[in-house]
Amino acid sequence: MPGKSSRLCSPFTTNSNTAANMATSVKSVRHVGSLLKAKGTPTLICHSQRCASAIAVPTSTASQNIEHDVVREASVPNPDPPADSPTAAQLSEHTPYMVATYVRPPPMMVKGEGCYLWDAENRQYLDFTAGIAVNALGHSDPEIAKLLYQQARTLIHTSNLYHNPWIGELSKQIITKTLSAGAMHTASKAFICNSGSEANEAAIKFARKVGKMRMPSGTQHEILSFHGSFHGRTMGALSATPNPKYQKPFAPMIPGFRYGTYNDESSINSLITDKTCGVIIEPIQGEGGVNVATPSFLQALRTRCNEFGAVLIYDEIQCGLGRTGQLWAHQILPKSAHPDILTTAKALGNGFPIGATIVNEDVAQCIVTGDHGTTFGGNPLACRLAHYIFSRLSDPELLSSVQSKEHLFRRHFEHLQRKYPHYVKEIRGRGLILGLQLKSDPTPVVTAARERGLLVITCGTNTLRFVPPLVISEAEIEQGCAILEKAMAVVFAGGEEVQGTKGQQEMAPSGR
Predict the structure, then answer these.
(1) Packed helices 16-25 and 29-39: angle between N→C axes, nearest 10 degrees
(2) What mean pLDDT is reported for the chain?
(3) What per-residue string of b and e applies to 255-292 under the rule 16 or more CB within 10 Å gives b?
């Protein structure tokens, strides 16, 4: 059950009897709620804007503010920290020193264990986000913590000027397990880096180098990506992410990028030409709305790339490493649709920064000493952790469980779709990367769920995204879906107005 707040609210004045009762009887916000109902005090609804990393400015008298906070905290199990909370005070102190790159809701997370998080005020949350598909093995895994401690006491970093044993062990493991899983049958070598954006940056550079080797004149230099994609925020990866929200503030983009429509086979021949050196695509778009590429579309891309010697890149940073119930999302495809380059990150470190770019021999032969590099990438600490994590994520028992958990989620989602047909339009995804397409802004549902002890996030346009830890239990799925249904009841059928947090829809326009 969601944890109770450790914060006690002061009583407020509505009438003398109510105030007296509160002053002597408040032991928890839930008890305050029962008192209010018993006295017939009207329920007040919180309409305040939940704005990230910002402190609400009082717009009424002090007693009205206290009344507002107490009633709000009494109405939900896990209320967001109010403006007079210790969390808000800490944010007020820290926010002036932080670049405002993110919109965050009020809670400050301080502890995690398994599939749960706790905030600074000891509220507990069931986590259906896994750090945006990162914590596949859950939070604070004891074996990961043990290995981190052991390796940190042994050797953390040397730079790539010297050999270390773990970068080689990890590279070997990635290639051998990828081949044995039936994925990317031409996988040959791996480049280890620090993040998904860096992995894609390397892939784009490698594709450009292949094009340069084929056409020394430089005419084969174009990179094709697709609308709805998200490949990263560095300039190369950003140039492959055709969303004005991300590109406009930093325009102009790097020249030579073209954009197509996802799953539109009819446009492939006009998009991939003798000028194309590479095509980068997510087999399942994460940020774009949990959109799944059709097998025929990916096969058509592969066929057209073969005609011109273009490199096909599968970005599986979010959808790979067991999230679909297979080691790699593309391994359900025939070999004839496999990529030349495969990128990964996120779950590879379970929260520790690491990424990898996997290439076939044709690509590897084009890359020579000095073409690319990294200072921190491949350090022994990150690689030792990733070696252990990869072994866990490639375990057949875990992969099989992901598929059964998908079925459980889908049963609940289908129930919600039947219950709210005018609000829930579509269910998308595979494994434990799933999306519920809503007809309108989903952030009020996100807020209502959070204040009842469940963390969910958005993606695309009006889509709720579910990427929980792969180790989540069926009981936890049942618990979380029950909370989600309660949140939807409040937003869709309860007659209450719940404010979302503006700016939290990943792909939605920012207005800048």
Answers:
(1) 150
(2) 87
(3) ebbbbbebeeeeebeebbeebbbbbbbbbbbbbbbbbb
Q: Shortest CA distance to 278 belongs to which of 351, 198, 362, 346? A: 362
Q: Are 65 and 13 in contact (CB under 8 A)?
A: no
pLDDT digits (tens, 9 = 90+) for 327-369: 999 999 999 999 999 999 999 999 999 999 999 999 999 999 9
Residue 423 contacts residue 413 (beta carbons within 8 Å): no
Read off the pTM.
0.86
Cα–Cα distance for residue pair 422/415, rounded to 1 Å:
13
Cβ pair 319, 282 in contact under 8 A = yes
8 Å CB contact between 128 and 117:
no
- Span between the terminal Cα atoms of the chain, in Å: 40
User: pLDDT tens digits, residue range 100-140?
Assistant: 998 899 999 999 999 999 999 999 999 999 999 999 999 99
Task: State phi, psi for 306 to the nearest 5 degrees.
Answer: -60, -35
Tell me how far apart the alpha carbons of residues 484 and 317 are, in angstroms, rounded to a whole number.
Answer: 27
Please state whether beta strands 276-281 and 187-193 pair in parallel, antiparallel, or not at all (unpaired). unpaired
> What proportions of the chain, in percent to the nearest 5, are helix, strand and coil?
40, 15, 45
CA atoms in the 13 A half-sphere facing the CB of 410 = 13
Three-state DSSP state, 120: coil
CA dihedral 474, 480, 482, 483 (to 10 degrees): 170
Beta strand 424-430 pairing with 433-438: antiparallel
